[in-house]
Amino acid sequence: MSQPDRKAKKPTWVIDKERAKRAAAAETVWLFGLHAVRDALVNPNREKLRLVVTQNALDRLGELPEGVTPEIVDARVFDKNVPLPPESVHQGAALEVKPLKWGRLEDLALEGAGRPLLVALDRVTDPHNIGAILRSAEVFGARAVIAPQRHSAPETGALAKTASGALERQPYLRIGNLADALIELQAMGYIVIGLDGTATEDLPDVLDGLKGRPLCIVLGAEGPGLRERTLETCNKLARIPFAADFGSLNVSNAAAIALYAASRI
Question: N- to C-terminal Cα distance for the chain?
Fold first, then answer.
């Protein structure tokens, strides 16, 4: 007599992957502040779930897109109606949304809007820094900002507010392994330049011979800088020249300078 087939047990890594996928599908983000909320409302790619506003904020937002019904609340009890971090400067407007889906790195790198210029972030976890970097990336025409899924700031209301609308337009792609992604970009023809204070060459000199080449600028967290494997993966290392030995820059300021320099070649 034949034994009934037993259902094969799934490996632990498959179960974990499926669990993470379900969690991501259920994830939502609360955006806040008039600018961030307004730009999200007019973004056709943004899935909007719930808009909570004061009457004054609603008047300032203007006409709402079809299908969005606001919940109007009194300003005095606004904070009790939405789960925002303490001290959030919400201006009476909050919008619950699904995180944006930007697709594959390969597609963005090869066919994204703007010049073939990318920013990669190595363990930059401050949402305000990433928001500011997204603004600079949009201003200087970068195709995307990429960061590892772990050890980077996720899409949050604070990040969106600092980005001042850029989050809705500038791809922010969180990937599995940064070094592997940089190797993938190199295979597509990108020159990967790591910013490092101990580098022997200045950024303008490194960029001088790369006109017309696809570029990826890599920045690390303030303090630790780039990880060892990231440094080893970069094609070139460069420093931003300072007028004095004690000079240093916030990572978002360094990104803005590097993007400007790369956009000028």
Answer: 77
